């Protein structure tokens, strides 16, 4: 099974696309995961640049201001998903769309309408739309997602377990059944390491963060093993350590305590080596 790593555009929006694309290509990423609607003018050249250099891309759909009014939210969700689909041409299409869908206070009936909308647009475009596990969304906690997956078994996830760790203030030791079910529905992973007091450790390389890292590695191992069992030919992973406010700063300065891009490259290298070793053990 091939494992492809995608670099988040998040935190590097200030870097011109040709420079950014060359950098991540040189560092061995297969592509980029990006929310282009955040700056449509800056991202006009995105698809052409990525296509020319031979990189794939995953599109991200993020927060909408209309969330408090459900009908306005649903209209905006439809409008923005179609806008995302404009980021393609004949020789370059997104691998899929990762959607931070809905809000944590929407009813199950309201979320069903969101899911139906995403499914319809996905079928029209032949581009999968999968739902990210994320705080302040329907998918904010392990036990909630378990209930949804039992009700809507066709749902596909982009699994970011750092959010669930933060929400639960635990390493989910008593919710492994929910994690196992989520793994069976996971099509993509955001490889960020959370801890019981936050969604991102200061630095996953630091010894004080090894407990947190090891919990996440065990979960990601289970996902990779599941994909092999169902004969998936490819897995996609985005190391997703973020900039401020995910990344802490030295007090009274604007100096981040670690280098975001360096952390994402380190995570990519760690998982590459880990899963190459697993392949060799088979």
Defining key terms:
single chain; 282 residues; alpha/beta; eight-stranded parallel beta barrel
Architecture overview:
By secondary structure, the protein is an alpha/beta fold. It has 9 helices and 8 strands. The protein has helices spanning 17-26, 46-53, 70-85, 108-125, 142-151, 161-168, 176-184, 210-229, 260-281; strands spanning 2-8, 31-34, 56-61, 97-99, 129-132, 157-159, 186-190, 234-238. Helix 8 links the parallel strand 7 (186-190) and strand 8 (234-238). Helix 1 (17-26) runs parallel beside helix 2 (46-53) and helix 5 (142-151) crosses helix 7.
Query: What ranges have pLDDT less than 50 throughout 5 or more consecutive residues?
Result: none
Computed CA radius of gyration, to the nearest angstrom: 18 Å
Shape: globular
Q: Please give the share of residues in helix.
A: 40-55%
Number of helices: 9
Strand order of the largest sheet: 1-2-3-4-5-6-7-8
Largest sheet: 8 strands, parallel, barrel
* Average pLDDT for all residues: 95
Instruction: Specify the structural class.
Output: alpha/beta
- Order of helices and strands, N to C? EHEHEHEHEHEHHEHEH
Give the end-to-end Cα distance, rounded to a whole number of Å: 12 Å
Q: Find the count of extended strands (DSSP E, 2+ residues).
A: 8
Beta-strand percent range:
5-15%
């Amino acid at each position: 099974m091939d494992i492809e790593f995608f670099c988040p555009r998040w935190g590097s929006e200030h870097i011109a696309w040709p420079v950014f694309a060359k950098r991540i290509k040189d560092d061995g990423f297969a592509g980029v995961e990006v929310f282009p609607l955040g700056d449509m003018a800056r991202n006009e050249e995105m698809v052409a640049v990525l296509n020319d250099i031979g990189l794939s891309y995953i599109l991200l759909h993020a927060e909408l201001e209309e969330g408090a009014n459900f009908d306005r939210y649903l209209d905006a969700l439809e409008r923005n998903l179609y806008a995302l689909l404009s980021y393609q041409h004949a020789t370059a299409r997104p691998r899929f769309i990762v959607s931070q869908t809905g809000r944590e206070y929407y009813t199950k009936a309201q979320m069903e309408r969101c899911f139906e909308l995403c499914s319809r647009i996905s079928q029209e475009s032949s581009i999968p739309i999968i739902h990210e596990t994320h705080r302040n969304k329907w998918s904010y906690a392990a036990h909630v997602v378990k209930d949804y997956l039992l009700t809507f078994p066709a749902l596909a996830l982009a699994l970011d377990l750092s959010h669930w760790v933060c929400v639960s203030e635990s390493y989910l030791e008593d919710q492994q059944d929910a994690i196992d079910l989520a793994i069976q529905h996971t099509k993509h992973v955001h490889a960020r390491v959370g801890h019981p007091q936050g969604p991102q450790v200061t630095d996953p390389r630091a010894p004080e963060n090894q407990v947190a890292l090891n919990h996440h590695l065990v979960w990601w191992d289970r996902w990779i093993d599941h994909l092999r069992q169902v004969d998936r030919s490819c897995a996609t992973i985005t190391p997703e350590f973020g900039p401020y406010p995910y990344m802490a700063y030295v007090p009274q300065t604007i100096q981040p305590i670690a280098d975001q891009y360096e952390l994402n490259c380190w995570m990519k290298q760690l998982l590459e080596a880990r899963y190459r070793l697993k392949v060799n053990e088979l």
